[in-house]
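Entries read chain and fold; for instance:
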Amino acid sequence: MNAPEHRHSNDGGHGAQADAASRDEGRFNLSAWALKHQQLVIFLIGLATIFGVIGYTRLAQSEDPPFTFRTMVIQTYWPGATAREVQDQVTDRIGRQLQAAPYVDNIKSYSRPGESMIFFAMKDSAPVDQVPETWYQVRKKVGDIRATLPKGAVGPFFNDEFGDVYTNIYALEGDGYSPAQLHDYADKLRTVLLRVPGVAKVDYFGDPAQHVFIEISNAQLTRLAITPQQLAQAIDAQNAVAPVGTITTADDRVFVRPSGAFKDTRALADMLITVNGRTFRLGDVAKVTRGYDDPPVTQMRTNGHAVLGIGVTMQKGGDVIDLGKALDAKAAELQAGLPAGLKLTAVSSMPHAVKHSVDDFVEAVGEAVAIVLVVSLVSLGLRTGMVVVITIPIVLAVTALCMHAFGIGLDKVSLGTLVLALGLLVDDAIIAVEMMAVKLEQGWSRARARRPSPTRARRSRC
């Protein structure tokens, strides 16, 4: 009884397999179509490989993928005010206006004595193309209440570019040159660097602010019976810049301007000041000098020497390798034109780091191809091993072509993804070739062995 039942079960199984095979034959099979049109497929593979290699050479390269910051910092200064006064009369007023801005996610504020700082964050779901428009709306809404802020408030100042990364950082160093002279030469270098293709902006840092200091002793203030505030008001009145008026004639219009502006520290020291009915020369009672912040707010040092830093930011979507080559050439040209004693040196270079990352990936691909070739030759034979090895550069070339088409460049994220995908690619190629070899050993014809079985694949997935 058992034997007929067993034969009946096998007949049913063969019938089901035959039905499944007939259904699969009626469907479109990409592998079967490729085997019937081998010349066309080889041509398309060769064409895709060539365009993929070209696309790889044109991929934009950078350290990190481009991303959009959805946070803006709004700072307002009110010298002399307490933290509570800043909170009530500055921070709260600006915060109420920001609540009506589009795509607002959260608003964080910090009030310190004399300073208000507000962080405006957009929703992550906000479209990228709406970010600049939102920043414009924020500036406009805050600008509408600027006149209502307390007298003496400075700002507000908006910063939506703190996410920019410097591509190259240079140090301008000069023995015997003052910070003001370094700044003048840095201005000239900045004008030249901004004309380099791919440069978005050039910033300075480590540049101490220059001021005019008026130092007067307490003994002199007591002898003259004046206060520092009275002295400051007298100087401001003399150095005021205000619209006086115009004189209109039949042929011309003449602008009238006050002539009390100080051209240098000597003119300021020669100024006559009248306070409480007494007139005296400022230089006789105070020391007038020009100097810099001490200690400086920011300072940059290279090899123990104070320098002026110059940071270069790349345009979005640019190629950091090409920009690095252009900047290196331009920096060498600028160095040749600088006077004796001035030196422009590269402190940080993102192009070198990116090139190192790309070289590491290419090295990993070469190692993978070599390892697969050796293992395949030992375990599968020469012809089978060559098939596996050839698939790796072909798939990578097609991947580079697709990356170029979708605007994806080479960066940490994409390179890491390609390294992970490389392992899956090698594994898939070995499995496919080994399956065909096993089928041939089982007596299948070459046509059937190289044609995958969709039914078996579906069952294995289930």
User: Anything to note?
Assistant: DSSP finds 16 helices and 15 strands in the chain. The first strand starts at residue 71 and ends at 77. The chain has four domains: 56-62+355-449, 71-159, 166-209+296-354, 211-292. The longest helix spans residues 350-379.
